[in-house]
Amino acid sequence: MDPVVRRLGFGGEHFTLDNQGGQHYLLHSIGRAGRLTGKEIFLAPEKNRTHGWYREGSLYLIQKQQKDGAWKSANASENPIVATSYAPLFLSQGKEK
Q: Has residue 97 been placed in a domain?
């Protein structure tokens, strides 16, 4: 099996947006993996699920954005300036029209 396909399967099986540290860096990394591979969905066959990485990540960011427009990590382990920098980077990874 192709190593990239195998790794994406691992990513699908372990896909989570509830990282305890570096949440917004994780989102940016998921976005980069999706864009670089051209995959819109990560598969999790053992869990019988799929993950639309951009849709799930965007919904997460919309729900977590602060009233002042910034983002913070859930446990304050990530600097709010860093979190707010990574959030738009993730959003910029959306599918080009």
A: no
